[in-house]
Amino acid sequence: MDIQQLRCFLAVAEELHFGRAAERLHMTASPVSRIVKDLERELGAELFVRGYHQIELTPAGVELARRVPPLLAEFDRLRSEIQLVAAGESRVVRLGGSHLSPPGVLDAVVECAEKGNPGRRVDVALAPSSDLLPALSRGELDAAVVHLPIDDPAMEALPLASYRFFVAMRRDDPLADYDELSLADLAERTVVTFPLTLQPLAMQQLRDDLVSRGLRHFRLLAGADSAMLAGHVRRTGDLTFTLHPDTGGSSRIFDDPAFTIVPLTDGPAFRLGLVWLAARAADRVVGGLVDAVRERWSSGVLEI
């Protein structure tokens, strides 16, 4: 039993389809099927019930699917740790950042990474939180600025900023003349948001909060694209939430004569934080970054 076999098995177990698993692994279906059969032969157990149009996990397959993810995560972390040791003094600081986070927050964290690791280059990878967290778990990043909360006990988090939302709408919207809005004012309107996949736990909590306070009509975008969001609002007249354009980044998309933004007095809780692997806290690169961030944020979480 080897790592490739386990990766192939897990992809098939999660997709329940050899073709989709192969696409995910950048392979074709035939070798994936062969690798899984070899694994079944080595284990002496059938892992899948194969039907004409679908496959299902056997009890042995369910148990293996439960045990494999932590094994693969530990292997990936081990590989990463060995690479870091080999890099020695030439090692860079690998920081991830949500592509939708306010630039000022991420810039401040980069400055902390430089301060805590003098002489080391800081590389920043921009991606959705849902991509950064698995990369962090695999040891491919030293830390990441992502949307909170997280539910991985192997990770630690330091809150950095809480969002103060505005309601973005077309300039001709009936609500555009308001000086401020509450969620009650939006109860009969459709609110469009980024998909839950942006950061499933954070986005689900956001949605649950809105539902508990009376909002009923939602539309989810297919992707986390700010231009797509603004285009949808402009075309349909739906509402959405945004930060003030002065925070920069993706919020500037609504700094346009076609739109109006109005402060939301009782917006939902939504936070941004720095996350790292607890097991890596003693690592001098991770520790230097985290200590510098703690010092800079000693006065508490920012409201943005």
Record the SSE blueprint.
Blueprint: H1 3-15, H2 18-24, H3 29-43, E1 48-50, E2 55-57, H4 59-87, E3 93-98, H5 103-116, E4 122-127, H6 129-137, E5 143-148, E6 155-162, E7 166-170, E8 190-193, H7 200-212, E9 217-220, H8 226-236, E10 240-242, E11 259-263, E12 271-277, H9 284-296, E13 302-303
Parallel strand pairs: 3-4, 3-5, 6-13, 8-9
Antiparallel strand pairs: 1-2, 5-12, 6-12, 7-10, 7-11
Helix pairs in contact: 1-2, 1-3, 1-4, 2-3, 5-9
Describe the structure.
The chain is of the alpha/beta class and 304 residues long. The protein folds into three domains: 3-84, Winged helix-like DNA-binding domain superfamily/Winged helix DNA-binding domain (Arc Repressor Mutant, subunit A, Orthogonal Bundle); 91-160 and 271-303, Periplasmic binding protein-like II (D-Maltodextrin-Binding Protein, domain 2, 3-Layer(aba) Sandwich), CATH 3.40.190.10; 164-263, D-Maltodextrin-Binding Protein, domain 2 (3-Layer(aba) Sandwich). It has helices at residues 3-15, 18-24, 29-43, 59-87, 103-116, 129-137, 200-212, 226-236, 284-296, and strands at residues 48-50, 55-57, 93-98, 122-127, 143-148, 155-162, 166-170, 190-193, 217-220, 240-242, 259-263, 271-277, 302-303. A six-stranded mixed sheet has the order 4-3-5-12-6-13, with helices on both faces. The chain has a three-stranded antiparallel sheet with strand order 10-7-11. α5 packs across α9. The protein is globular, with a radius of gyration of 23 Å.
